[in-house]
Design goal:
It is a single chain. By secondary structure, this protein is of the alpha+beta class. Among the domains are: 138 residues, Conserved domain common to transcription factors TFIIS, elongin A, CRSP70 (Transcription Elongation Factor S-II, Chain A), CATH 1.20.930; 102 residues, no CATH class. A six-stranded mixed β-sheet has the order 14-1-8-9-7-15. Strand 8 and strand 9 form a beta hairpin. Helix 9 packs parallel to helix 12. The termini are far apart. The structure holds S-adenosylmethionine. This is Histone-lysine N-methyltransferase.
Length: 681
């Protein structure tokens, strides 16, 4: 992106007789007139015309005396020195003429000396701000930890200052690298601040169509600087945003969909007019834009955050790294170590001042010490970058000796447990670090934390649901733990097979259970008839009496043996015939009979059942009849006769269909019992 700073509103103020009637304050700036009464006697540094204001950055010596102060100006030095007219008693605060012109005082020459309150850039009087974890596709953001007053200086936008040519080259380079977010901020005359590789927290400020901050151009020691200032009072722990006033390249035909979520959202970042509908419809959505394609997993960890001390005599600083060679110029940074800078940030700063690579064993020890979950993902990510930039093999070996594997295991364990959007790229990056190290099988096997060995952890990661992480873990395991990986895969396959077969066994068990359920009602029926349930009925000898209902029941389909521990290879038992009545009349007739009790049988089955019931009853009834007992032919004749009668009746009843039903046993047996009464004496 190219973000053009909004020209500071109103730098031209009316003097005595002006509409304001008082010396202008920051609050008055919005009411300024477009035309200045200023008479410039020497060259102005910048002139920008906006619709409502003319913005002019002055040199002190051209400021008309009558406009700003009743006191005589003190011209202290050469033309380019910014000196204000504040008295020592007042100090340079809101009404300081320099400040109102967005020019910082030079502390060497400011009459207020140490009291000067117009050196905020130089003294880095930043508000307490912190990084905000990505909540949505916009990525990271910046929030204020303290309440801000309207007009308060928040932070300077710093980065590498590059010229137009270098800016164009970098744009292409970043696009090729697949960078999702862009951090260019144009200053003037084609110069751009690039905070992609080097910058401070200001680079995480997101765009909003209803921003709470704005950018202002300030002159600091003869340089133009960009500052972020509160547009209104802002509560603590609020996200800070400003309007990007996004400028699109001629080549960039598609727009970046805005995700600020404000009611007045214009739809696209930098759109001059509201275009919300288009944005909702996905029209003009840039598929390569960060917002539409933001994938935190693919996002590179942010570059090492560097804040350099300001070197008075060498505005380029001593950081003559690649950026300088590429035409980039270091933005000047002021002062000592930043307020609120963490230990890790300070460490990273030191490393970066030495070219961005680790140079000593002390560094290695520090790095391993910083690989702990208590440090922010931002810090860890930067530490990973630093490790990955280790130049020598001996240094990488030193990491292994110092126990980096255990430290990484603890981190990765945390990331897998809390697999947030932000943790996933770190998990993958940690695996990159592992594969970057010169590992041996022995080193891996020896490494372990309290939870488990690194080997087990790594092999488990090979089955992680994030395919990319699993792939990276798999590659490491293939390289160093090939035999273990193979064994693990084999045992997994075996387990899967067992699972599959045991689930088949469970299915068969369920089938058996259903069979038993089918039997149970028939047993109940028998009990209604005065008998005892066959399963429970035992005689005095503990044996099941012969006269149980089973004698009359059709034998159930063959069941597999119950006690087989190992699953039988045989196919599951054939399913019972569907319990559908044969016709509508049957359905009506047996409507009171549940499906579980009625199933269609072949005529042979039916006849066998009927015959069995009759034989049983007839033989039992003739036991006491000595004459009949001996006349077997007569008994057979009775059986045949009864059987034919029953069959005739049943056929009539079922309309020709032969259907075994729950009443069959009772009915046939009752019929036979009644018939045999005549033979009982
Ligand atoms: C200066 S960076 C801001 C920090 C960035 N969010 C990050 O995670 O590093 C600008 C980039 O943030 C994203 N961005 C910022 N504000 C946005 C918004 N309102 N809607 C969509 N994307 C936004 C865009 O990808 C843009 O290129």
């Amino acid at each position: 992106m190219t973000t053009e700073t909004k020209p500071p509103p109103g730098r031209v103020f009316a003097g005595p007789g002006n509409d304001l009637g008082h010396a202008p304050t920051l609050a008055d700036r919005s009411s300024c007139d477009p035309v200045s009464t200023t008479k410039a006697t020497t060259t102005t540094t910048t002139t920008t015309r906006t619709s409502s204001c003319t913005t002019i950055s002055y040199r002190l010596d051209i400021i008309p005396k009558n406009v700003y102060t009743s006191r005589p100006r003190r011209r202290v030095r050469a033309d380019d020195v910014m000196v204000c007219d504040c008295s020592l008693s007042e100090g340079c605060s809101e009404n300081c003429i320099n400040r109102m012109m967005f020019v910082e005082c030079d502390p060497k020459y400011c009459p207020c000396g140490d009291e000067c309150q117009n050196c905020r850039f130089q003294n880095r009087q930043y508000a307490e701000v912190s990084l905000m974890e990505p909540k949505d596709l916009k990525g990271f953001g910046l929030m204020t930890r303290q309440a801000l007053k309207k007009g308060q200086f928040v932070i300077e936008y710093v980065g590498e200052v590059v010229n137009e040519e270098e800016h164009n080259r970098r744009k292409v380079e970043y696009r090729k690298e697949g960078k999702r977010h862009f951090y260019f901020m144009s200053i003037a005359n084609g110069e751009v601040i690039d905070a992609t590789r080097r910058g401070n927290l200001s680079r995480f400020l997101n765009h909003s169509c209803n921003p709470n901050c704005e950018t202002q151009k300030w002159q600091v020691g003869g340089e133009l600087c960009i500052g972020i200032f509160a547009l209104r009072d802002v509560d603590a722990n609020t996200e800070l945003t400003f309007d990007y006033h996004f400028e699109r390249d001629a080549q960039q035909t598609q727009r970046l969909r805005c995700l600020c979520g404000e009611p007045n959202c214009r739809g696209f970042v930098g759109s001059k007019t509201a275009n919300v509908e288009d944005a909702r419809d996905g029209l003009g959505d840039d598929p390569s834009s960060s917002a539409s394609q933001y994938d935190p997993a693919r996002d590179e960890p942010r570059p090492v955050m560097v804040e350099r001390g300001h070197v008075e005599d060498d505005p380029l600083g001593s950081l003559s790294t690649s950026s300088q060679q590429q035409g980039g110029r270091r933005r000047r940074f002021s002062g000592q170590v930043a307020r609120g800078q963490t230990e890790v940030e300070q460490f990273l700063e030191t490393v970066c001042s030495e070219g961005g690579v680790l140079t000593s064993d002390a560094h290695v020890i520090a790095v391993v010490r910083y690989l702990k979950p208590q440090y922010s993902i931002f810090e860890i990510s930067n530490i990973f970058q630093v490790i990955l930039a280790s130049p020598t093999r001996s240094m990488r070996e030193e990491f292994v000796k110092r126990g980096i594997l255990s430290a990484l295991q603890v981190l990765m364990h945390r990331y897998t447990e809390e697999l947030t959007k932000a943790n996933l790229p770190l998990l993958r990056k940690a695996l990159d670090v592992v594969s970057f190290l010169p590992l041996t099988e022995e080193a891996i096997i020896r490494s372990r934390t309290g939870k488990c060995s690194f080997t087990t952890f790594l092999l488990d990661l090979c089955r992680h649901h994030d395919q990319e992480a699993a792939r990276r873990a798999g590659a490491i395991a293939e390289k160093h733990l090939a035999s273990q990986l193979r064994r693990r895969r084999e045992s997994q396959q075996r387990a899967q097979q067992q699972m599959a077969s045991s689930s088949g066994w469970r299915d068969r068990e369920r089938e058996r259970e259903r069979d038993r359920d089918r039997d149970r009602p028939r047993i109940r029926e028998w009990r209604q008839d005065g008998g005892r349930p066959p399963s429970l009925a035992v005689n005095a000898n503990g044996k099941r009496p012969r006269d149980d209902a089973r004698a009359f029941l059709p034998s159930p389909p063959p069941r597999p043996a119950h006690k087989t521990a190992a699953p039988p290879a045989a196919a599951p038992p054939p399913p019972r015939p569907a319990p559908t009545p044969t016709s509508t009349s049957n359905a009506k007739r047996f409507k009171e009979i549940s499906d579980a009790f009625v199933w269609k049988q072949s005529s042979d089955d039916f006849r066998a059942i009927v015959r069995e019931i009759i034989e049983y009853r007839v033989k039992k009834s003739t036991r006491d009849n000595k004459v009949l007992r001996k006349d077997k032919a007569k008994v057979e004749a009775i059986i045949d006769k009864l059987y034919n009668k029953v069959m005739k009746k049943e056929n009539e009843r079922a309309g020709g269909a032969v259907t075994v039903h729950k009443d069959l046993v009772k009915k046939v047996d009752g019929y036979a019992r009644g018939h045999m009464k005549q033979y009982s004496k």
